[in-house]
Design brief:
Helix content: 25-40%
Number of domains: 2
Largest sheet: 5 strands, antiparallel
Structural class: alpha+beta
Shape: elongated
Strand content: 15-25%
Order of helices and strands: HHHHHHHEEEEEHEEEEHEEEEHEEEE
Radius of gyration: 27 Å
Number of strands: 17
Number of helices: 10
Length: 387
């Protein structure tokens, strides 16, 4: 009798509505209208579906009061998954055992969806109040059995999304708290903001969502106000590196070189799900001038980001370190700051092509110059310049 109620609940209007909302939101609305509402809508629908699905399994196992147990288990599991990185990784691994690559991410704001568990309880209670012997109950039971694999597939598959790690940086101008009373500039890292002193403070990603025309994407080179420039250099065999120029982009030396061992170490235990391979590709670079100091940051995809300190030393922040920073409040609107680009910087390469150095200067007496950077950052580089 209890098993029949659990299966018939899968054919109830409430379950069907939640299933339609989940599939429609994950495959249509999130793409067409990305934002906070569509991000939470899937959690609400999922918290209605999951206890009803688990209730079927628990009734087969003859667990007492299966629906109550299912709601408690789903609620605790959801809280653990959304509040801790370890919980999110464990949930991803557990769902992936179904054969569907799944990734879940920790986000404490998703806990706002927990009241949706009461919706699952209402659906089950309504179905339990209906007479079980009618022909409608028989049709509902058959429909519930047919919808069971569809619902399991939807709840698992929608948790998996393509994730290339940190791809977009920008310099943002606004008023931040804590911070000075006036406007200041900070480096925006997805939903996080890095101050000029090198500290990183997190703000809600939806606040940082700027109009498309105001966001710089995949900038390969930028300069400070004094003409010192940095650029991403893919190289011939692609070894992630950043080059620096002290003469406005005429000549370049290697400032950061990520060795294969460093790259492999940065990608250890980076769970992406969806059968994706983590990457340390350098994808975006920003320069922030804060008084007399200059900060440079470059996105490193799955490896997080590299930050150049005032002393010229590069350090790496992993995705977990960036995501665990405390939240700050905003005191005003944000706007993107367009970068200064070096005048001699060539256009970024097309997909499949490699970037070339600026063309050799045309002059009567060219001079070959060999520059030796820090030995840890790579071999000497030779350039041709006018005397």
């Amino acid at each position: 009798m209890t098993t029949g109620v659990s299966v018939r609940a899968l054919a109830s209007p409430g379950f069907a509505l939640a299933l339609v909302v989940l599939v429609l939101n994950d495959h249509v609305l999130k793409t067409a209208y990305p934002g906070w509402i569509t991000g939470k809508l899937s959690d609400v629908a999922g918290l209605v579906l999951a206890p009803l699905l688990l209730g079927v399994l628990l009734t087969v196992w003859r667990v007492p009061r299966p629906m109550l147990v299912a709601i408690v288990v789903v609620g605790l599991g959801f809280t653990l998954t959304k509040s801790t990185v370890a919980g999110a990784a464990a949930a991803s691994d557990l769902w992936s055992l179904t054969g569907i690559p799944t990734e879940m991410r920790a986000d404490v704001t998703d806990l706002l969806a927990l009241p949706a568990l009461y919706g699952a309880w209402l659906v089950h209670r309504h179905v339990a109040s209906l007479p079980p012997g009618s022909w409608r109950a028989t049709v509902a039971r058959a429909t519930g059995v047919a919808l069971l694999p569809v619902a399991v597939l939807a709840t698992a598959a929608t948790s998996c999304a393509s994730d290339q790690g940190l791809e977009n940086l920008t310099v943002l101008s606004g008023r931040f708290s804590p911070g000075p009373a006036g406007r200041e500039e900070r480096i925006g890292v997805l939903g996080d903001v890095m101050a000029g002193d090198g500290s990183v403070a997190s703000i809600r990603p939806r606040v940082v969502d700027l109009p498309d025309e105001g966001v710089r994407r995949h900038v390969n080179a930028a300069c400070d106000d004094d003409g010192t420039c940095w650029r991403i250099d893919p190289g011939v065999d692609y070894v992630p590196s950043v080059q620096m120029s002290t003469d406005g982009g005429t000549t370049w030396t290697r400032d950061l070189w990520v060795t294969p061992d460093e790259r492999d170490a940065a990608l250890v235990d980076v769970p992406l799900g969806c059968n994706e391979e983590p990457s340390a590709r350098l994808r975006d670079l920003v320069v922030l001038k804060d008084g007399t100091s200059v900060r440079v940051a470059v996105g490193a995809s799955s490896a997080g980001m590299y930050v150049r300190t005032v002393g010229g030393r590069w350090t790496r922040l992993s995705l977990a370190e960036i995501g665990s920073i405390e939240t700050v409040r905003l005191r005003g609107e944000l706007s993107a700051v367009e970068p200064h680009t070096p005048p001699h910087y060539p256009p970024p390469p097309l997909p499949g092509e490699t970037e070339s150095l600026p063309p050799e200067p045309t002059c009567d007496e060219p001079v070959t110059v060999s520059v030796t950077p820090n030995p840890q950052n790579g071999p000497p580089t030779t350039y041709v310049r006018c005397s």
